[in-house]
Write a structure and sequence with these properties.
A hairpin with a 2-residue loop joins strand 3 and strand 4. By secondary structure, the chain is α+β, with helices and mostly antiparallel strands. The strands form 3 sheets. Strands 1, 2, 7, 8, 9, 10 and 13 form a 7-stranded antiparallel sheet that branches. The protein is built from 3 helices and 13 strands. The protein has a domain of 102 residues. The protein is 20% helix and 38% strand.
Length: 164
């Protein structure tokens, strides 16, 4: 029984991909000028209890004290209030796209963990192509409408284990 659980867990972990968006999400929704007080503070990650720090106008991500990444709001980071979540879009220079996270009222961080076949499920649900794969099997979301993003946020965003 343990072997089956380990095998299923391995398949689940391997099948997850990060989805990058062309624009901060949800598109055509106003960005906030500062991080709200309710989510300012420290978050655990990389085995440290305060590896992620959210201040009024910036986000600091530090895997160790000497190697901190400081992101400025409205340059590298966009935050929007939507569907009961604070939706945070971080610009990835590597991908030339936005990585999207959501923080709910309990300060729980969520992201879209893509499992194989989810593109087919979502495309069938909406009756049109929302996600495609490029030549390198990377997922590319097309222009999502707010209601489509809301559905995905509610149904397919899940908690991120920041202690990894």
């Amino acid at each position: 029984m343990k072997k089956i659980i380990i095998a299923l867990l391995t398949v689940f972990i391997v099948s997850c991909k990060t989805v990058y968006y062309e624009d901060p999400q949800p598109i055509k929704w106003p960005a906030l000028p500062s991080f709200p007080k309710s989510i300012q503070g420290t978050y655990p990650a990389f085995g440290q209890k305060d590896a992620i720090v959210i201040e009024k106008k910036r986000l600091i991500i530090a895997s160790d004290e000497d190697d901190a990444m400081v992101l400025q709001l409205n340059e590298d980071v966009v935050i929007k209030r939507y569907a009961g979540h604070w939706v945070i879009s971080l610009y990835s220079k590597e991908e030339q796209a936005w990585e999207v996270y959501a923080i709910d009222n309990d300060r729980s961080v969520k992201t879209l963990n893509w499992q194989n076949g989810l593109d087919d499920i979502l495309n069938a649900h909406f009756g049109k192509t929302l996600f495609v794969e490029d030549s390198e099997d990377e997922l590319i979301p097309l222009q999502l409408k707010r209601r489509e993003f809301k559905y995905i946020l509610k149904k397919h965003f899940s908690g991120v284990d920041l202690n990894k």
